[in-house]
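Subject: mismatched residue count in predicted assembly?

I count 1394 residues in my input, but I want to confirm that the predicted structure covers every chain. Input:
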Amino acid sequence: MTASPLYSGTQVSRVETPAAQGATELGVDPTEKDARGGRPRLGVFKFASCSGCQGVLLSCEDELLALADALEILYFPEASSHLQEEGPFDLALVEGSISAPEHLEQIQKIRARSKTLVTIGACATSGGIQALRNFGNLDDFVHRVYPRPEFIAALATSTAVAEHVKVDYELRGCPISKRQLLELITAILLGRRPEIRNESLCLGCKRYGYVCVTVAHGLPCLGPVTMNGCGALCPSVGRGCYGCFGPKEGANTEAMAQRMLQLGMSKDDVRNAFRFITGYAQAFREESARHE
Amino acid sequence: MNEQMNGKVSKEHDGTRTFRVEMLTRVEGEGRFHLEVKDGQVRKAILHIFEPPRFFEGFLVGRSLFEVPDITARICGICPVTYQMSSTRALEAILGITPSTGIRKLRRLMYCAEWIESHALHIFLLHAPDFLGYASALEMARDHRGLVETALRMKKVGNSLLEAIGARAIHPVSVRVGGFTKPPSPRRLQALLPELEWGLEAAQETVTITNSLPMPEFQQPYVFVALDGGADYPLEWGEQIAVSGRDPVPLGEFEKVFIEEQVDRSPAFHCRLPDGTPYLTGPMARLNLFADRLHPRAQEALERTGLTLPVLNPYRSIVVRAVELVHAFAEAVDLVREYTPPEPPYFEAPLRAGEGFGATEAPRGLQYQRYRVNDAGIVQEARIVPPTSQNQPRIEADLAGLGPELLAMSQEEATLRCEQLIRAYDPCISCATHFLKLDIREVED
Amino acid sequence: MTAPESSAAPLYRLEEAGLALLLEGLRRDGYRLVGPVVRDGAIRLQRIEGISDLPRGFVDEQAPGTYRLRSSGNGRLFACRPGPQSWKRHLFPPREPVVQLKRHGDSLEWRRPVVEDPPMAFIGVLPCDLAAIRIQDRVWMEGPFQETRYVARRRNTFIVAVNCLEPGQLCFCASMGTGPKAGQGFDVCLTELDGAFFLEVGSERGEAAVASLPLREASEEERRRLQESLKQARLRMGRTLETRGLGGTLFGNIEHPRWEEVAKRCLTCGNCTHVCPTCFCLNVRETGTLADGRQDRERFWDSCFSLDHSMIHGGYFRHTPKQRYRQWLTHKLGAWPSQFGTVGCTGCGRCIAWCPVGIDITEEATAIRKTSRGHVRMPQPRSAPVRAGDPLVPTPAQVKGVRQETPDTTTLWVEPTGPFHWKPGQFNMLSIPGVGDVPISISGQEGSGILHTIRAVGKVTRALTSLQPGALLGIRGPFGTSWPLRAVRGRIVTVVAGGIGLAPLRGAIRVMAAHPRHYPWVRLIYGARTPADLLYPEELELWRQLLHMEVEVTVDRATPDWTGNVGVVTKLLRAGRKVRPDGVYLVCGPEIMMMVVLEELRAAGVPEEHIYLSLERNMKCGAGFCGRCQKGPFFLCKDGPVFRYDRISFVFRHAGL
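Triage response: the counts match. Full output below for your records.
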C-alpha cells in the first residue's frame, strides 16, 4: 500500500456507532462477540397469547441449534428451565398483548432490561384476537364466560405492547412468519436493515403467481390492505386473506370496504371482517367503526 | 447444573414443607405450582395458572359460524388443528353436513401431522430433559446432539405435512366448515413420503429410547377418558366418549357427565366426574382404552416396550407418547400413499338454527366444543373445554399423591420431581386460560 | 411495431395435428414448453407437455376488477386473452439469486449464479405480450448495462406467437400499435382460424422448427379471410387510448386534481405493477441468515406502489397514494418513451382487470388529457453503448485507510481490484456482505486508492464508516454521469456545495485546482451545519491559497471559536459581487439548498443550461434496472447523478416525482 498524506493506514478515533457493532470486521462471525465479549443474550417473553409465535421459533427446526449456538438464551420458559429473568438482554422477543394488570409493570421491566425489543405476532403488535373484547364491555365478556367474575383480573382492553413501551421492531402475523423471524434476528445481530416489507399482501401473492380470488372468483380478500409477510397463504388455498398481518402502511380501508360491499357483503360482514385477528390495529379499528 | 432453576427454597417451620415453582417451564403457557405438606399430610396441592383470560367464549358470540374455526385455532398455538376441528365438527353437526370419507381422511392426516409435531416437541424438547437431567433440550444437545437433531427432524416432518395441507403449521388456513378450501395436490403430499417413512423408523427408535429412560415409580387410581373413534384410534372423529370402568358418554351428554365445578374459594373450573372423581385424558387414557385400535406398527412397538396395560405410571406417558408417535407416522404414511384429493373439497348446506357438539383428541387429550347458532348462522352460545382443564384436578391429585415421598428428597430434587410429573401431562396452559381458573389468590406462606 | 398486414410473407396452413408435431419437435430439440393452462379459475402461464394442456374450449370475460373463465363453446386452443400472469415471470422471475459470495481464506469473491434452465419455448404469445417482451428487452438488454441472466434466458427462448382475433373488453392493443397482429420478434406466428392454424415464420430458428411440418401454402382466399379477421379484430377493441403527446401532457399536469381523485380509489396494493408485462422495478435483499451462514443476495419484483421503493435515509419521497399512482401512470405512459424509446404500455388490459377496485388506466389518462392544464416537452431517448460485465456483481476491494472527517462522516480509502477508471461526479455502489450496498459518490483518488466520503445515516453507511484498514468490501461501478469538466474549460466556474454535497464535487474541484490554465477562475461556496461538520478543512485551506481559486465557507450555526461566515450559501453567493449570468454553476447539496440556489440563479438571469446539479436518490442497482432512482423520465443512476439543469427543471421542483 502506498502511504497517503491524508489517509493514514492506522485506526483513527471515531464516534461509537453501536448499531453497527458486529458488522465492523468482515470474515469474522459478528455473533461471536458483543459489547461484553459474549454471545448476544436473548429473552423470550409472553403476555396474553396462544404461544404460537414462540412456537414458530421452536419450529425453526433447521436453524434452532445454530441459533442456540449463536445466542445465549437467558430466558425462554417454554424451552428451558434455565431462567435469568433479570437479563440484561440484547434482544427481547415479546409475544402477547398487554391485557392483565400485572402486565403493565412486567413490560416496563422487560423494556428496561433490553437493548432491542421486538414484538412478535398479532397479539403483541395489535392486541390480538382477544382485543375483540375492546369493542364491548369487559364485564359482559367476563360474565358470559365466568360464573364468578369477581375473581377475574383483566384490563378493560387488550392492547399492543407499543402502546406501553418503545418497541424497536415488530413482526406481524398470527402467527409470525418463520422467514421474517430469522431475517429479523439476523439483521439485528449483523446490523443490517431487516427486509420486512410493509407492502400489500397482493405483491407477495402475485410474485408467487397465485390467482387473485377477488378478481377471478369474486371473493372478498383483505390482501390489498394487509401487510405482506405470510406468503399469501389464504389465496394459495383459494380463500380471501383475513388480515392476520394487520394493516399495511397507508391502507385505504375505505375503498376496500366499498369493494367488499359491492361483492355482496353486508355491513355487518364488513365490520366483522375488519374486526378480527388484528381488529384493534388502528386502520382496521377505524374502518370497522364506520360499519357499526 | 440446575442451580439457577427457579424452585424456591423450602421454609421449614412448624413441620411444614412447601414446594413451589414460580414459573413452570417447558410447558406451553405460564403457570406455577404450590404444594404444602405438613406432618406428612398434603395440605395444599395447587397448579396455578397465571395466563390472563382471553374470553374466547365471549367474543365468539355474534360471529358467523364460518369464522369460528379461524377464531378457535387462536386458542392454542400448539394444537390449533384440534380447536379448528372440534369447532368444525360441532358446526357441521348443526348444519347437517356429514363430510365425505375423503375429507375425513385428509382431516385425519392433518391430525397425524399435528400429533407428530406436538409429540416430537414434547417428548424430546420438553420432557426428556427431565429424565436426563438437563434444563433444556438445547442444553441437552451439547451431549446428545444427534437425539435433538432427530427430534427436530421429526417435528419438521409434522410441520411440513401440516403446511402441505393447511398452508401453515400454526393456525392453518385451509380448514373450513364442510371440508377444505382447497386440498393439497397428491404430488405435494407424496413428496413428503420419504421423510414420513424415515420418521416412522425414527419413532420406533424413540419408543426404545424413551422406554430405557430412568422411570420414577408412581401410581394412582386413574379414571381414563378418551374419544371413541369407532374402529379407529381416537383422533379427529367420534360420537361418544369412553370412560374407563363406566358407561360411554354420548357427545351431547358431555357437560352432564364431565362437570365443571368451582373449587372452594377459587374462580376455577375443574372438570370432574359427577361423583367428584378427577379423571385423566391424553395419551395414557387413549392407549389404555384403545390399544387394540393402534396401527399394527404401533402395536408392535408397544409390545417391544414390555409395558403391561393399563399403564398407570404417569411418568411413563413419555413412552406412551412415543408409541402414539409411531401410530401417527404409520397412519400418515398409509393416508398419503392412498391419497386422492377429496371431491368436492367441501360441502355446503343452508344455514339453520341449532346446537351442535364436537370433540376431537388433541395430542394432550380430549377437546370438546358446543355451539348454539341462530338461523342466520350467528353464534349465540359457545362452550369450549380444553384438555388441560380436564387434567388439572388430576394433576393436583397426582401432586398430592406425590407429597409424602417428596419429604425424603432434597428441595431441588423434590421440585424437579413435581415438575416432571406436571410435564408428563403436556399441559397446554394458554389454551386452558380462556375459561380456566385464574388463580388470583396470593400464595399463603 | 406492427408489421404491415399486406406484407407478402409466406403464409402456411397447418392442421392441429401439425401443431402437435411442432410442439413435439421443440421438445425434442430440448426446449421446455411454457404455455397457457387453466388453473384456479384463470389462465396461468406454466410448463406444458403438449397441446392437450392448452385451454381448449375456454374463453375469458373481463371487466374492471373482474375476470371469469367460461366455456367458449368451441374447440379453439387460443381463445383466451391475457390472464393474470405474463411471460415476464419466466424471463424475469419474481425472485432470483443475483449474487453468491464465496470466501477463499481471507479474500472474497462474488459470483452471479449461472442460468442452468433449459431453453424455453413460449407457446401462444399474444401480440400485446410479444410487444411486452420486446419492451422488456430494451430494459434489460439494450444498455448501458445488460441483465446477464435475462439475456441468457431471452436468447434461448423460442417464441410461438398467436395473433388475436377476439380482443376483449379491456383490450386496447390497436391504440398502442402492438396488435392484434403480432409484430416482430416471434420465431413462428400462428393464427387460429376456421379450425386450423395459419403459420408465418419470423426467424431462421423458426424456419428450422417448421421445416419438417406438414405445411400447405395458404390459398388466396384463406389469406384474405385472415386479413379480414384481423381487420375485424382491430375494430372490436374494448378500449382505446390516445398516446400522441401523452408524456408531455402527463408531465405537464403533475399537480392535476385527478391524481387526488384516483388516489381515493387506489388501494396502493401494486397489483397493476405485478400483472403488467413490462413493469420491471426490483429490489435486492440479503438472503443469508445466521443459521445458514450465507451472505448472498437475491433480487425480487418490487413496485412503485410499495413505500419501500421510495425510501431514502429512512424517509420516503413518495409516501402518498397520489404520488405513487402518479409515478406509475406517468412512468408507464409518459416517461417510458424518453427512457426506452417506447411507451411502457401494450394495451393488454391486465392492470384494469386485476386491479381489485377496477381502476382503468385508459380512463385516468384520458381524464387528464381532456382537462389538461399544460404540456411539457419530453426528452428524447439516448442510446448508450452496451458495457460488458454484470453490473450487479461486486468486485472485492480493500480498505487502505480511513479518516474521520466529522463526527458522523468518514472517508474510506479503498483499493479496488485491478485498474479503476472514474470521472468526478460518478458514484460507486459499496457492498458489505450480509448488510447491503449503497451508492456512494467518489470523492477523489490517492495513488491507486479511491476515496469515498460517507455519512453514517443508515445501517449500511454505519457499517461502512466502521470499517477498519484491511477490511474487505465490494465495489460496483463507477456509475453515472460526471461533472462537465471539459465543457466548462475557460469559463467562470462557481461551485456551490452544501454539507456532504462537497464530496461528489471534490474530484472536480481537485482537477480545476490543479489546472489553472484550463480553469482560470473558480469560486467555491461551501456551507455546512456547524464548523465541526465542514468536510476537508485542510484541503479547503490549500485551495484557498491558490491564485485562481476563491473559497468561501459558511455555517448555519456558529460555535464560539468560529470567526467565519454564518448563514446559508445563497447569502455568500450574492455577497460581494453580482451573480454572473455568463458563469457556469456546479451545485450539489441537500435538495432544499439546491432549490434556493436555483431560485437565486434564476433571479440573477443565469440560463438553466449553465447550471449543473448532482442529485441523490435511493439507487439499488446503479444500472437502470431497479427503477428506484427515477425522477420523471430520468434514472439518476445512468442519466445522472449530474444533470444539466435545463434537462430536468420540469420535474426537479415537483415533490414526489
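Residues 52 and 175 of chain A are 6 Å apart (CA to CA). Marking this ticket as 'not a bug'.
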